[in-house]
Amino acid sequence: MTDEFARRYGFPPGTNQVRPADRDDQAAARALAQVDLVPADLVTFYDSIGDVTWADVGNGYFVDPVRDVLLRLKEYGAVDIGADQGAGGLVIGSNGGGLCYVIGPHGAVYRTRTASLDEPELDRVADDLRQFLELLEQGLTRFVTNGDPGHL
Predict the structure, then answer these.
(1) In the prediction, which pLDDT does 132 show?
(2) Which of 6, 19, 39, 118 has the lowest CB atom count within 10 Å?
(3) Average pLDDT in the 99-107 region?
(4) Distance CA 105, CA 42 (A)
C-alpha cells in the first residue's frame, strides 16, 4: 500500500500497522475483562492485538489501544447506545474523520454520525467484532486495489 504513496500524494505515508499486544497490553486486557459491559471477543482481541493504525487508508482507520479504551471509560464513562440496547458501550476506535466506533455489551459495533459523544446518534455497522474487523480488512483491500476505502 505504501510503495506508491509518496509519489501519488506528494508526502510520505504515515503509520499503517497492526501492532501485536505486548505484556502491558495483555495486562490492560485482563483489566478490561473485569468491566461488566465488555464482550469477551474484545478482551480476546486485545490479548493478541495492541492496536490497529491505518493512517493512510482513506481518512484513516484506528482501533485504539486497550489502555486508551480503559482511560476513556474511566474519564467519560460508557457511551449511551440507546435505551433499546440496555447498556452503554465503549469507544474502541475512530475513522480519522472524527467519527468513533463504539462496541456494545453484546458485541455489536456502531459508528457515530458526528464527532460528539454527548448525545450520540449511532449507526450499527457490524453485528460483532469479527464482522467489524472483516469490514476493516475489506476496506484496506479496496483501498489498495482502487483507492476507495469503503463506507466504514
Answers:
(1) 96
(2) 118
(3) 94
(4) 10
